């Protein structure tokens, strides 16, 4: 079996998996709307209490089993629990289908920024004329094709690509952040992001958003780290590697927050509520071009912004396709056939999201919340394998690893956090739609979660739920 050539190859590839569009478009919005510095305190706490512990579990299971999530759960957790690995794979593959659409949006705007056409039409009209139309499809296909080509070349191809794209992404984000903080008035944005209001730390919503951001931002519990851990060396220090990736990912999120909020407060602080309330797509594709247009050399910095966004989207998409490919390789398919199956699945399942924003938001809601269930399954898997047994093995690898703390987190606190998050998001949905929360036809309802999760769980259990 192929391996990453070095620890840095693994780190670049896994950091590429973790750093995605959410770092650049979701983190600044959530951090700003949830108290800035107060949110950052809670965010770091849950980096240590959710992300890093689950990353360690994924690395351990992937390296030990040398298989994707289905076969890894079957061999290490127990055959009757293989369906949990099936759910983890299904959830990430469903996200992969609409994430290829997001990557397509990024490439479209990169193209527009390179040609200068991004400001030919008011940015809100430009977005409305593009999103959910057939114009999305060529860029959807382009993003998918680029990711498929990389995965087709195998782990060494993923490693070589990541070693080019990730340093490039870091340089771009640093340049954009440096430019933003040199703008007049940027200090207001920095104060808004970093100055804590300690009273807000008593607000449970701040902590819940911080936990949610960690669950969605770092890639912990998705199964993607497990898929890359299949190719890691036995000599790699798992706790150290997990910590480097987690803090590296969150450092990029912080730089993105500096970039977006410094630019916003420098150019149009009066529209703060409107911009932060515009949602992920609104901030990225409507407001950022509009703000950057007024900056000296705005065309150049707009191009850098969308290049960074396209790279982040592509590296994350590569990891999702590799996960699906690994599942089919494990059951006997050659890589080229497995890649073709996953590419076809992503294309077909992604088309409705490409052509309907309502469908896109529905899928993001259903499977985004589904990732929390995936994290719970990883915690359960570690408990079944033996948390003490895993801790003993890991403690020999790193002086950074605390056996007692990690055991408590995996056995008790991760399951509690997962249950709280799922209950909170369901309660949020009921509050949004008090009279029709049960309807499966509402994009962000409890009903649509129950229907699609139920279908997904029945599907994976019917295939993997019995001894094979």
Secondary structure: elements and pairs:
Layout: H1 7-18, H2 21-33, H3 37-65, H4 69-77, H5 82-115, H6 123-130, H7 136-152, H8 155-181, H9 186-194, H10 204-217, H11 224-229, H12 238-267, H13 272-276, H14 279-292, H15 298-330, H16 335-355, H17 357-385, H18 387-395, H19 403-432, H20 446-464
Q: What percent of residues are in strands?
A: under 5%
Distance between the termini: 24 Å
**What's the number of domains?**
1
Classification by helices and strands: mainly alpha
Task: Note the total helix count.
Answer: 20
Query: Mean pLDDT across all residues, rounded?
Result: 94
Helix content: over 70%
Q: Quick one: biggest sheet?
A: none
CATH architecture: Up-down Bundle
Structural write-up:
The protein has 468 residues and is an all-alpha fold. It has a single domain (7-358), classed as Amino acid/polyamine transporter I (Up-down Bundle), CATH 1.20.1740. 79% of the residues lie in helices and 0% in strands. It has helices spanning 7-18, 21-33, 37-65, 69-77, 82-115, 123-130, 136-152, 155-181, 186-194, 204-217, 224-229, 238-267, 272-276, 279-292, 298-330, 335-355, 357-385, 387-395, 403-432, 446-464. Helix 2 (21-33) crosses helix 12 and helix 7 (136-152) packs across helix 15. The longest helix is centred in the N-terminal third of the chain and has 34 residues, at 82-115. The radius of gyration is 21 Å and the shape is globular. The two termini are 24 Å apart.
């Amino acid at each position: 079996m192929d391996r990453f050539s070095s620890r840095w190859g693994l780190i670049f590839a896994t950091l590429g998996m973790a750093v995605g569009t959410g770092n650049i478009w979701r983190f600044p919005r959530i951090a700003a709307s949830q108290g800035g510095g107060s949110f950052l305190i809670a965010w770091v706490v849950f980096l240590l209490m959710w992300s890093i512990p689950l990353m360690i579990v994924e690395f351990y299971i992937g390296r030990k089993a040398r298989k994707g999530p289905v076969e890894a759960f079957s061999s290490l957790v127990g055959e009757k629990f293989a369906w949990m690995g099936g759910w983890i794979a299904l959830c990430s593959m469903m996200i992969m289908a609409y994430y290829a659409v997001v990557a397509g949006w990024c490439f479209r705007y990169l193209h527009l920024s390179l040609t200068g056409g991004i400001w030919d039409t008011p940015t809100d009209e430009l977005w409305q004329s593009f999103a959910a139309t057939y114009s999305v499809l060529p860029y959807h296909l382009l993003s998918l094709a680029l990711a498929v080509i990389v995965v087709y070349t195998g782990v060494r191809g993923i490693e070589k690509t990541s070693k080019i794209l990730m340093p490039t992404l870091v340089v771009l984000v640093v340049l954009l952040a440096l430019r933003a903080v040199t703008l007049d008035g940027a200090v207001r944005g920095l104060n808004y992001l970093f100055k804590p209001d300690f009273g807000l730390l008593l607000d449970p919503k701040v902590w819940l958003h911080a936990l949610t951001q960690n669950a969605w931002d770092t890639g912990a519990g998705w199964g993607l780290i497990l898929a890359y851990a299949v190719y890691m060396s036995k000599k790699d220090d798992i706790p150290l590697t997990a910590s480097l990736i987690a803090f590296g990912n969150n450092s990029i999120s912080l730089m993105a927050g500096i970039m977006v909020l410094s630019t916003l407060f420098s150019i149009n602080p009066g529209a703060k509520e409107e911009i932060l309330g515009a949602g992920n797509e609104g901030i990225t594709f409507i407001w950022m071009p509009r703000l950057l247009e007024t900056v000296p050399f705005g065309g150049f910095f707009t191009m850098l912004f969308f290049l960074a966004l396209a790279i982040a989207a592509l590296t994350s998409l590569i990891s999702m396709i590799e996960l699906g490919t690994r599942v089919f390789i494990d059951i006997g398919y050659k890589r080229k056939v497995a890649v073709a199956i996953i590419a076809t699945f992503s294309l077909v399942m992604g088309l409705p999201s490409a052509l309907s924003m309502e469908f896109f938001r529905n899928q993001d809601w259903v499977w985004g919340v589904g990732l929390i269930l995936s994290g719970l399954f990883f915690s359960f898997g570690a408990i079944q394998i033996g948390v003490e047994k895993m801790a003993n093995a890991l403690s020999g690898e790193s002086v950074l690893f605390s056996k007692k703390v990690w055991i408590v987190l995996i056995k008790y606190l991760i399951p509690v956090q997962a249950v709280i998050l799922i209950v909170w998001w369901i309660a949020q949905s009921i509050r949004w739609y008090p009279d029709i929360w049960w309807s499966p036809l509402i994009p962000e309802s409890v009903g649509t979660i129950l229907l699609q999760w139920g279908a997904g769980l029945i599907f994976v259990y019917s295939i993997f739920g019995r001894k094979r």
